[in-house]
Each structure stands twice: as C-alpha cells, then as structure tokens.
Amino acid sequence: MTLMTTQDYDQVDYVDKLRENCVTAYTGILQGMRPAGSENDPEKLNQAKQSLSRFIQPMCEMIAKCCETHPVPPSDGLVATVAGLIGDLVVLYGNMIIPTLNNEKVSALLVRGRKSRTSKTKSVAVWATKEMRKAMAAPIATTS
After folding, report:
1. What positions belong to coiled-coil segments (predicted)?
2. DSSP label at 37?
C-alpha cells in the first residue's frame, strides 16, 4: 500500500481508498469480536481483549501508515475512519494502548480531523480525542 508517484491521481485515490477499507475491516474485527454487554462484565471484556491481542500491532501499524502526510496527506474519509479505529481501541484497551497511540503523527491526524469541514470527520475526531484524554487521565491498572 505504498504510493509510488503523486502524479498519478488514480493511484493516489486507489491507495487512499485501499487504506480506508483496510481500517474499516479492522474496525469490523474490533467491534465484531467484542461481545455485547462486555463493558459491564470484566471477564467478557478480558476475553475480548485477549482474543483481539494478535490484531493490535497490525492495527497500530496501519494507523501509523495512514497518519503519514508525505507524499500525500490522507483524505477526509480516511481521517474519519482512522479516528474511529483509534477511539474504538482506546475504549476497549484504555490507558494500556495510550503509549502506542500517543505520538505526534496520531495527534496531528486528530487535529486535522477536528479542523475538518466535514461534520462526520470532525465529530469522530473529537470523540476519539476525548476518549484518549479520558484514558490518559485514568489511573494505570495494576495487577496483583
């Protein structure tokens, strides 16, 4: 999914849409494997986290790839989709995922989303930012 030339607008659009669809697929995996009502059941929530753990690294790598602005910045649709995945990961993993997602590229993508003229992109980026701030403010869970 690497862009070879910025002169070929069809290729630029293709790579952007391909990335957007990959992120959408990851979002589907994340939401599909999280059982209903798991928010109120710590055991179900832990099972969901364990089931999803093998997908977290590729998801975070895709997020990082989509945050790159060179040679071409991501489209508004891609920004919204990535912000949604970021928010979903933070909701599920809380402050455990923050060290991976709290970086300049992700912050820049969320800022761009919050400044977007597209209401969907703006609202999803605002939500993801709020979830990240909540997770960063939460005490770090310890195991005993």
Report:
1. none
2. T
Distance (Å, whole) CA 2 – CA 19:
10
pLDDT of residue 41: 83
Q: Which of 28, 27, 4 is nearest to 14 (CA)?
A: 4
Q: Which residues contact 37 (CB under 8 A, 6 or more apart)?
A: 44
Cα separations (Å) of 81 from 22, 66, 97, 110, 113?
Answer: 10, 10, 18, 11, 10
Domain boundaries, the chain: 9-137
Query: Each residue of 37-48: pLDDT tens digit?
Result: 767 788 888 888
Q: Alpha-carbon distance 123 to 80, whole Å? A: 9
